[in-house]
Structures are given as C-alpha cells and as structure tokens.
Amino acid sequence: PLQVPALGLHVRGPAMLASQKDFNNAVSQVKLLKEDPGNEVKLKLYALYKQATEGPCNVPKPGMLDFINKTKWDAWNALGSLSKEAARQNYVDLVSRLSASSESPSPEAPAADRKQPESDSLVVTSEDGITTIRLNRPAKKNALTTQMYHDIIAALQAASKDESAITVLTGSGDYYCSGNDLTNFTHLPAGGLEEMARSAAALLRDFVNCFIDFPKPLVAVVNGPAVGISVTILGLFDVVYATDRASFHTPFSHLGQSPEGCSSYTFPKIMGSSKAAEMLLFGKKLTAQEACAQGLVTEVFPDGTFQKEVWARLKAYSKLPPNAMRISKQIIRNREKEKLHAVNAEESSVLRERWQSDECMNAIASFLSRKAKL
Ligand SMILES: CCCC/C=C/CC(=O)SCCNC(=O)CCNC(=O)[C@H](O)C(C)(C)COP(=O)(O)OP(=O)(O)OC[C@H]1O[C@@H](n2cnc3c(N)ncnc32)[C@H](O)[C@@H]1OP(=O)(O)O
User: Fold this and answer.
1) Residue 213: what pLDDT?
2) Which of 27, 67, 190, 344 falls between 20 and 30 A from 322, CA-CA?
3) Do the Cβ atoms of 210 and 156 come closer than 8 Å?
4) pLDDT tens profile 39-67
C-alpha cells in the first residue's frame, strides 16, 4: 500500500475499498466511542471525512488568527490528491481501530473511587479531618485544563464520602487560579466548534453541579489572584479566606463570554445588583479587601501569616462534630438548590452559544497570539 505521509495511513487497491454504507456506519460509530481519542486523531477523522465527501481541499486557507479553522484546513490539505474512495476506506479503518480499543476493558478505577487524580495538576490530600484539593499548575497560574475539571469533579465526589469533616480548595504558587485554560478552546473535536461548545457546556454544568450539591463545609483558601470561573464559584463555597495579595477578576465581556458558576444569581444576592454588574458586565477587578467588604470573601489575612493562621483555624474547625456541620449546611443551602441548578443550566446553555461567537474566538486568539492579557 501507498503511505499518506502526514497521517501515516494506507491507501489500498480498489478491490478492498469500503462501501458508502460502511462509511456511513463508521460516521455513526464515531459518535458512540466511549473514550475521547484525542485531538490528533480527531483532526485525522475530520480531514478524512472532508476528503471522502468533498475530495481534495478546495477552500481558501483561513487567516492566521482563525487558528481552529486553519488547523482543520491544514489537516485536510495534507491529504493532497488522495481519492475519495481511499479516504473513505482510511476513515473506516481508523474508526474500526478506535472502536476496538475503546471496547477493551479499562484498567482505571471508576472516577468516584479513584484515590489520586489523573494528572499532577491536581493534588488531593487528607489530613487532620481536612481534605485539601490543590490546583498544582503554578507555571500556568493554575489555569484549569479539561482534565482538571474532571479530576476536581472526581475529587469532590470522593471527598463528599470520605472521613474528613471539611474540604478545602486552594492553589500552589503565587496564583489561586487564572480560570479556564484558554487553550482548551483550541482542542477541536471531529464535530468542530459546535461539538466543542456542546461538550464544554456539559462539562461546565457537571462541574458546577458538584459544588452546588457538595454536602460538607467547603472552604476556599485563596492564596493569590483569582480569575474567571475560580471567582464565580466562590458564591457556592461556605467560607472564603483570602491573602491580602489576592484579587478577584471576572473579565467575561473582555473575553466575549458570560457569567457562570451561578454567579449571575449568587453575586447580586451577595453584593447587590449594581456591584455585581460592575464585576460581571464590566470586569471590575476587586482587591481582597473590597471583595471582603462586598461579602464575597469571609476574611482577609496578611500574606506573611496567611497560611499559618488559616490552617490553624481550619484544623480547629475540623474537630467540630461533622454531622452537625453537614446538617447545618443542608438547612442553609437546601432551599436554594433547585434554583441554583436551574441557574447553572441556563448559564451553561448561554455560554455554549457564546463560545461559538466571533467575539469569543477573537478574544481567545488575541490571548494565544500574546496580543492581550487581562
Ligand atoms: C469547561 C468550563 C469552562 C468554564 C469557563 C470559564 C471562563 C473563565 O474562566 S474566563 C477566564 C479565563 N482566564 C483568562 O482570561 C486569564 C488569561 N491569563 C492572563 O491574562 C494572564 O496570564 C494572567 C493575568 C492570569 C497572569 O499574567 P502574568 O503576566 O502574571 O503571567 P503570564 O506570563 O501571562 O502567565 C504564565 C503562563 O501561564 C499561562 N496562562 C495563564 N493563564 C492562563 C489561562 N487562563 N489559559 C491558558 N494559559 C494561561 C500564560 O500563557 C503563560 O504561559 P507561557 O509561560 O507558556 O507563556
């Protein structure tokens, strides 16, 4: 067989080529894959699909800033003059390999039972009655990758059932968290931008639901500046301690996006509608003292003594009767839960549309091309 260099795929003789029916079946099968095959494979699938249905790449190359469409165009163009039939066959072969490997039993434990997260970007420890979930990507200011969202969900599910009395979210290094990792938007699935927005919205909804439903006292130890979703979900925590170096920034309009984490509901409730609007519409950054004055932060500590003071206090709180704390949290939060779930669903669905907008794509392209920073 001939080799298509960019993709490492084979071109077979005409007698072995897959039928249109095989191809249609393979297209349906892709949607049923149990495991995400990764971006490289998804790009291959995209390129082969285009080649099989439309022939060699025949559209103008997208501009430099249109990074998503340019990556797709490059993959399609790399197939050169490969015939439609050969592309169809390669597509069918690739899907059949993917289906076979996704059928084989996974060696991993189910997410809820997993002791440690999938990547080093999250560290979960339990000590002195406190489960600590630490964002651990200091070189990237603890920006949240897709894997980290999944790992945090798993960590919260495990913490809700473990022996600890209190659960803490904090960060490593000088930042608490710089929000969503903007490169998440460059990992385009085979279904394109629409599919990316759909699955990101589903993940966002699951992620925020875990905070809404978390049954034990949940404390944020904000060790430095906080951006985006790491700020908005603070309204779902029971207590927020911050160093005086922390700041709180929700630059959604700058990013062509809209609020999440139930902040469209919790922020106006916590700080009043006009202060909330200044943050959520105009991206006003609050200092730790300002956030405390508005009720978003419980208490601010001098940076030099922050860790010592906060952990001493949390250790003392963790000795309180755990069932009493759970029940008190239930009474405080339960009547709001239904509302919060509805708000989360609505915010996620609005964002699904926003993520497909030019305003959002241009803002992300600007950040990635190092033209814009907050
Ligand atoms: C699926 C659920 C989706 C939920 C959606 C949530 C929405 C949000 O969270 S919106 C908020 C998104 N966050 C941002 O827009 C922040 C972008 N980052 C910045 O503006 C700056 O990096 C900073 C102000 C946070 C820090 O600036 P500083 O000069 O101190 O440090 P840098 O040199 O810029 O950063 C170091 C390193 O980290 C990378 N990085 C930082 N934040 C992010 C991020 N959010 N996404 C991707 N990468 C990030 C930065 O690019 C640097 O990387 P290099 O060293 O490789 O250049």
Assistant:
1) 97
2) 344
3) yes
4) 777 888 999 999 999 999 999 988 766 77
Looking at the DSSP assignment, which residues form a beta bridge with residue 170?
134, 221
Q: CA torsion angle for 170, 261, 232, 235 (degrees, to 10)?
A: -80
Rounded-to-integer distance, Cα 68 and Cα 65, Å: 9
- Return the residue whose CA atom lies nearest to atom 51 of ligand 1: 140
Q: Whose CA is nearest to atom 21 of ligand 1?
A: 373
Two tokens, residue 28: 């349906």
What ipTM was estimated for this complex? 0.99
> How many Å apart are CA 178 and CA 223, to the nearest integer?
12
Answer yes or no: is pLDDT of 8 > 50: no
Instruction: Round to whole Å and give the CA distance between 153 and 170.
Output: 15
The percent of residues in the chain predicted with pLDDT above 90, rounded, is 69
The DSSP bridge partners found for residue 301 are: 243
Ligand 1 centroid – CA 210 distance (Å): 24
Residue in this structure with the two tokens 């699935």, named with its chain if needed: 189
Which protein residue's CA is at the shortest distance from atom 41 of ligand 1?
140
Q: What is the mean pLDDT of residues 220-242?
A: 98
> pLDDT (tens digit, 9 = 90+) per residue, 110-165?
333 445 687 799 999 999 999 999 999 999 999 999 999 999 999 999 999 999 99
Q: Probe ligand 1: pick from 36, 147, 152, 178, max atoms within 8 Å of CB?
A: 178
> Considering Cα of 126, then 128, then 133, then 137, what sign does the dihedral take?
negative
Q: Ligand 1: distance of its center to the CA of 140 in Å?
A: 7
CA of 242 to the centre of ligand 1 (A): 20
Q: How far is the CA of 180 from the centre of ligand 1 (A)?
A: 8
